[in-house]
Amino acid sequence: MLNIVVLVSGGGTNLQALIDAEADGKIKHGRISKVIASRSDAKALTRAANANIDTAVVPRKEFENDEKFNEALLEELDKAKPDIIVLAGFMHILSEKVIQKYDKMMLNVHPSLIPSFSGKGFYGLKVHEAALERGVKITGATVHFVNEIPDGGEIIVQKAVEIMPGDTPETLQRRVMEQAEWKILPEAVAKLCEERDR
Ligand code: GAR
Questions:
Q1: Residue 93 CB-density burial (10 A; 0-12 exposed, 13-18 middle, 19+ buried)
Q2: Per the structure, how many domains does the chain have?
Q3: CB within 8 A of 112, min separation 6: which ones?
Q4: How many Å from the N-terminal Cα to the C-terminal Cα in the chain?
Q5: Which of 98, 103, 90, 120 is nearest to 185 (CA)?
Q6: Closest C-alpha to 196, from 83, 103, 102
Q7: What is the pLDDT of residues 70-99, one digit of tens each?
Q8: Which helix H or strand E contains 7, and what residues bound it?
Q9: Ligand 1 atom index nearest CA of 10
Q10: Pocket test for ligand 1, best of 15, 93, 109, 145 (most atoms within 8 A of CB)
Q11: Would you say 46 and 16 are in contact if contact means Cβ atoms under 8 Å apart?
């Protein structure tokens, strides 16, 4: 059984998809043992508590810079002894130290078909705003390994989603979540756990 730690910053709907998949027996070789949030008001913390999952908060705004934030985050991660770390709506770029220590152990879900609308500055609703502005007809979501390039690590799975006339960033975000993210993230986590549980 692999020890899964999930990093979150906000609503936590992707975390919820992981919690539900585990409860439904779809993640047979892994267990979410801890959720670490970068904001104390993240709704994801309530979702974790409702599922009796241990939580920790490393509040970004209370650290003077990214380096100090990453040091505190690394301490929390080390304490949790993860086999796999899932970035599920985690809105910060991790330091080289964190990335190197957990190389090939960290997955991220990104709400576009990478390399479109990805990299520094593309997160959350901004990704969907950019896709609508560019006028693409197809977007989607990507699960990838985390490396030192933002959204640049090896791609594990992608799923395409159609853009509809009249879409707003909000309606598009919702469709990408429902049709892609909430499916491919639990599937990728289940598969990786199975492969590594030996
Ligand atoms: C999701 O769409 C996720 O892909 C995106 O933020 C949203 C978080 O929603 N993540 C990024 O943009 C990371 N670069 P959630 O908190 O409800 O899972």
A1: middle
A2: 1
A3: 118, 122, 127, 131, 139, 140, 141, 142, 176
A4: 9
A5: 90
A6: 83
A7: 999 999 999 999 999 999 999 999 999 999
A8: strand 2-8
A9: 16
A10: 109
A11: no
**110 labelled catalytic:** yes
Among 29, 110, 128, 144, which one carries the catalytic annotation?
110
**Is the distance from CB of 33 to CB of 3 less than 8 angstroms?**
yes
Token readout for 9 is: 């910053």
- Please report, for the domain that includes residue 65, its CATH number: 3.40.50.170
CB 162 within 8 A of CB 86: no
CA distance 46 to 30: 21
Please check whether residue 36 is in contact with residue 77, taking contact to mean a CB–CB distance below 8 angstroms: yes
- Rounded Cα distance between 46 and 114, Å, is 30
Full domain range(s) for residue 34? 2-196
Q: Full-prediction pTM beyond 0.90?
A: yes
d(CA 73, CA 126): 25
Query: Residues 4-17: pLDDT tens digits?
Result: 999 999 999 999 99
Distance 132 CA to ligand 1 centre (A): 17
What are the tokens at 13? 């709907």
